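User: Okay, second chain of the day. Same drill as before: sequence in, structure tokens out.
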Amino acid sequence: MLRVLIGLVWLLLSVSAVQAQDLQSILQTHADEIANPSRNSVGVALDDLVSSGLPQVPAFLEQWSERNVWQDNETGSFFIAAEDGDTLILRDVDTGAETEAPAGGYTQIRPNGGVRRVVGTALVQFQLSDPDPDRRLSALESIARRGDAEQLEPLLASIEGETDPSIRARKEQLAVFLTARFGETPDTRIAAIETLSSDTSLEARAVLSQILATEAGVTKGEPDGNIAQIIDPATAPQSYYGELVDAGMAPPVVTPAAIRAALEQNVVEGRVAGFPVAQLGTDAARMQAYAALVEDGRAPAFVTQADIDAALADHVFYLAYTEDNAAVTAAARETLDAVETRVGWAQKLDLTLDGLSLASIYFLAAIGLAITFGQMGVINMAHGEFIMMGAYTGYVVQLVIPDYTVSLIVALPLAFAVTFGAGVALERLLIRHLYHRPLETLLATFGISIALQQIAKNIFGTQARPLTSPDWLGGALVISDVIQISYIRIAIFVLALIFLFILLFILKRTRLGLEVRAVTQNRGMAASMGINPDRINMMTFGLGSGIAGVAGVAIGLYAQVTSEMGAGYIVQSFMTVVVGGVGSIFGTLAGAGLIGFLQKGIEWLNPSNTLAAQTYMILFIILFIQFRPKGIVAPKGRAAAD
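Assistant: Same drill. Structure tokens below.
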């Protein structure tokens, strides 16, 4: 009989335990904390919810945080609900069964921001091991935004079972961050801090900065705690004396407003401390009356500069670490200094890559001009419009061929052909009649550039047109948080190198290059040797224009394609050619490098004003030309002719 009773009791307890495992029962146990949550009281309810291990808890916590939980006014039961006018679509927190009911019989639970953060911390513990990778990533980003000591243990526990390599790496990184801030022992924290010496990410530096956070303090005698810095108040005596006043450690300085208020409060029968009110119209009179009040003990005494100096000398101003352990802050300071050194070198390398990228763009834009201006001496102000024509050619090709990779392969030679033909036509119809007349050539080509811009506006409109790069050129090569460069700029750099070698091959290894160099150095002698100077000029001008068209396709991949885009490169192109050395391919390369690195360097020194950076760059180039008028690489042939 005893065994039967024991069995019945065990059965009843088991049934009760099973019933207690439904979520609604746990919520009813903490109904007040759920219905009227506060940051201080909600922790007990969350502990029971988390420890229950019920699979429906994460969904409830998420809906609770998003204010989608409603309570039945009669029964007190909780539901997840969505509003549909005056009706609620209710979902049971355990079974998920849906019903509809009037909204008037239910109250929406509205946790404040503090409660939602606490709930979010509890929810993260479930999400770290969620089967859905997106939920695990969401939990990790939540930890990254608001790291907490309570998140460290569940984060460490979730690492071993993580199957996704990238998510596992992210978990390990965040575990180091949290250990550095909230590790159980100083040795554990120091070990984690030291591992951050090679991590130049913003997150790692933020973690170290949080450990090294300070707060200002002032005291008499030696300050207590983990002191970061003793401050000399002589750097701003008035400001630091104000801190003493705010802390109640020194009397306030008597201001004119305070003097006036004290005088007004002590007016008795038309007098203040024996002085008639009518005689207090000057500062000196008011000072005398106030001094009388001070002697009578009815007003605070004046604070002299000597008093301020004495008060400052009698107190110690300091910055104290919020972290109490000096060994931890010392390790964090040493690590942060090492990281900042690495970041400094990384920034220099990133600036170098930016300068190299800009130099390659300027070289690609100027190399065609180096041929027409350098080899022929023609000032072609329409060179930028040939760049624009190449960019629009690429845009038209993409309209016909939707595959961006194929369209790019087709657009490059087609842009060369179109602008080569346009350059030949311009040379035959206009330029050949203006040789040795630079002013007329400049004015004529300037007029041509305006006409070409207007034609482009009439055909394509004034709005920018997209020249989309292929997917394999999208994004950037990310070396670190500091060093990165877009794939498009890498492609432009490679294209610039290709054109450099092609031009060198043409000028040094082909008959056309030999004839071009001959005509450049001595036109009459070249003609007497059977070379047709007019044909060479036509081919040279066409070649330079064709290269400008190819440059337009490359530049259009990252810049806006508009009718005026070429005008933004004509000045830099001329500066590149002139600074590098007129008529020299290597000089153009050197000029592009000098201008590109110089512009990026000035922008780095003055990042808020790019117009000023360009102005400084032009002034530098003007001074440079004064000392080296023939450029970095002076052409030998032209120098001899001169």
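The chain has a mean pLDDT of 82.

User: Thanks, on to the next one.
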